[in-house]
Amino acid sequence: MKSFFRFLKQLLKLNNNRNENINEHNMRIVLLGAPGSGKGTQAKLIVKELNIPHISTGDLLRGAIAAKTALGLAAKEVMDKGNLVSDEIVLGMLKDRITQADATNGFILDGFPRNVTQAEMLETLLSELEMSLDHALLIEVDPDEVVARIAKRAEIEGRTDDTEAVVRNRLNVYKEQTAPVGDFYKEQGIVTEILGKGSIEDVQHRIQAVLRF
């Protein structure tokens, strides 16, 4: 029943969006995809076109720690002990970021949510802020192609830690934990699968067709 009401809510949201002026670029987007799918590259291209901030949770953590904010200090204390930063701390940083002036017309989230629990927490946060997501873009790339891409990148950068075994393990973690987030957003009717095969420009054009910019 809860999923049904979520779906109805998103249908109403999508209908309202069709009546908005697309030039206003009022878009709140989650970008999903496996490691090596090209999420970061596509995120940079999207924000350039739409003039909305690219929000990476990794960057948020590093920035908050460097600025010695209350949340940053709390995160540093946890990390110094070798533990993972809690979802609550990350969500607090995210709340601070998406309520800043440059995110008024939207934002693109990269690296969050990583699991369904985080997706539910994000939905609650956005609801409290009277916001909702407009799009969840899922970049789909064949696992063998991901392995080849990362191997090529590792060779160029001289990295030895991205072995095939390591990459396939990361893909397995993604499949178990993050892939279900796509199903979560499918229930809401906002997910679009983007074929990640081809050049950067090919993928960008597919995204442009969805976002209509």
From TrEMBL:
Region (NMP): 56-85
Binding residues for AMP: 57, 62, 83-85, 111-114, 118, 159, 170
Pfam families given in the database record: ADK (PF00406)
UniProt-listed Enzyme Commission number(s): 2.7.4.3
GO CC terms in record: cytoplasm
Keyword match Zinc: no
Pathway noted in the entry: Purine metabolism; AMP biosynthesis via salvage pathway; AMP from ADP: step 1/1
Subunit annotation: Monomer.
Function: Catalyzes the reversible transfer of the terminal phosphate group between ATP and AMP. Plays an important role in cellular energy homeostasis and in adenine nucleotide metabolism.
Protein name: Adenylate kinase
Taxonomic source organism: Marinicella litoralis
